[in-house]
Amino acid sequence: MDLRTVQEAIQSVRDYYNEHGIFLKKFGYGQQPALIIIDMAYGWTDAEYATGSARLDEAVEGIQRLLSACRAKAVPIIYTTSPFRAGEEEEPMYRDPESGKTYRRWDAHACEIDARLKPQTEDFIIYKENASAFFGTHLAAYLIERGVDTVIVTGCSTSACVRATATDARAYRFKPIIPRQCVQDRAAAAHEWNLFDIDAKFGDVVDIAEVLDYLDKLSAD
Predict the structure, then answer these.
(1) Mind listing the domains of the chain with CATH numbers?
(2) Cβ–Cβ under 8 Å, residues 38 and 162
(3) pLDDT in tens, 145-167
(4) Is 156 among the catalytic positions?
(5) Model's pTM, two decimal places?
(6) By C-alpha distance, which of 146, 150, 204 is closest to 172?
(7) For residue 78, which of 131, 153, 150, 135 has the smallest C-alpha distance?
(8) pLDDT tens digits for range 174-219
(9) Rounded to whole angstroms, how far apart are CA atoms 175 and 1?
(10) 130 and which of 23, 135, 170, 221 could share a cystine (Cβ 3.0–4.6 Å)?
(11) Residue 205 forms beta bridges with which residues?
(12) Phi and psi of 138, rounded to 5°?
């Protein structure tokens, strides 16, 4: 499905929701946010990997802006990535049978957070096995212990790990905020549809300027 068709479908569903007075409600912001940066590791941001065919530069730039603002206000910062187990990949390279292009096989480097978004010592890094940053991890307990009520969800990909994390965040009764400029997907159509659906049901999809304004008004601890 092309992007224009998806945009038309989104407008049609939006009209239906508005007509029937369902979904599309704002959850708003709480008093204590945390920033979650999902899977911005080289396996997804480096084009040497087949899974990193999109460098996610726009999301990186947006997250960099949020990182600066969050660090200034001592907002908890959580990163997620995948665990790597030596020996899982036998071949050093992978050749795409259709394009003939050769890609680097998944390795330990693929699981390292992109240096453009380098974690600091006080940040919490989660090595997750599933799409959601919450499922099978200590994230909920970590946030509750710190009094967090709002999670700013960023990273990749919109249609998978971002969506799953936002959905589970709402299930745990956090307020999910998704800055549009800080999430990306390989497929524009999947990106747009999932942003709309997340915004309609599970969280607030907003412009990054709104989030920066919210952070600016927080008192620094």
Answers:
(1) 29-46+53-81+113-216 (3.40.50.850)
(2) yes
(3) 999 999 999 999 999 999 999 99
(4) no
(5) 0.91
(6) 150
(7) 153
(8) 999 999 999 999 889 999 999 999 999 999 999 999 999 999 999 7
(9) 31
(10) 135
(11) 178
(12) -100, 15
Choose among 111, 166, 121: nearest CA to 139.
166
Instruction: Give the span between the Cα atoms of 165 and 202, in whole angstroms.
Output: 10
CA distance 115 to 212: 22
Which residue has tokens 């730039």? Answer: 61
Looking up tokens 């994230």 gives 139
Q: Which two tokens stand for residue 34?
A: 């945390």
Q: What gap in Å lies between CA 191 and CA 186, rounded to an integer?
A: 8
SS (H, E, C) the chain: CCHHHHHHHHHHHHHHHHHHCCCCCCCCCCCCEEEEEECCEHHHHCCCEHHHCCCCHHHHHHHHHHHHHHHHCCCCEEEEECCCCCCCCCCCEEECCCCCCEEECCCHHHHCECHHHCCCCCCEEEECCCCCCCCCCCHHHHHHHCCCCEEEEEEECHHHHHHHHHHHHHHCCCEEEEEHHHEECCCHHHHHHHHHHHHHHCCEEECHHHHHHHHHCCCCC
Tokens of 122: 């006080």
Catalytic residue among 70, 111, 156, 161: 161
